[in-house]
Amino acid sequence: MKVEYDRETCIGIFQCVDEWDAFQKDLDAGKADLQDAEEVEEDVFVREIPEDAEFDAKFAARVCPVEAIRIIDDDGEQLIP
């Protein structure tokens, strides 16, 4: 399972930071950063979700008010939002 994060869409509410420690605040930019992620296209970051963090990652995606976070299963299907 992977998380895909569109940093351009982020509006800096930081609810994801409260839900999953893979997200960190970048107060200078007013955006969250996804730690240990690979930039796959401009401002779009992807990383694997450890099994023990799946619940937190899914919750981070659900609470994002602008749907900047997507959860993708191993078959490439979008689970959340």
From TrEMBL:
<keyword id="KW-0411">Iron-sulfur</keyword>
<dbReference type="InterPro" id="IPR051269">
    <property type="entry name" value="Fe-S_cluster_ET"/>
</dbReference>
<keyword id="KW-0813">Transport</keyword>
<keyword id="KW-0408">Iron</keyword>
<keyword id="KW-0479">Metal-binding</keyword>
<keyword id="KW-0249">Electron transport</keyword>
<protein>
    <submittedName>
        <fullName>Ferredoxin</fullName>
    </submittedName>
</protein>
<dbReference type="GO" id="GO:0046872">
    <property type="term" value="F:metal ion binding"/>
</dbReference>
<dbReference type="Pfam" id="PF13459">
    <property type="entry name" value="Fer4_15"/>
</dbReference>
<dbReference type="GO" id="GO:0051536">
    <property type="term" value="F:iron-sulfur cluster binding"/>
</dbReference>
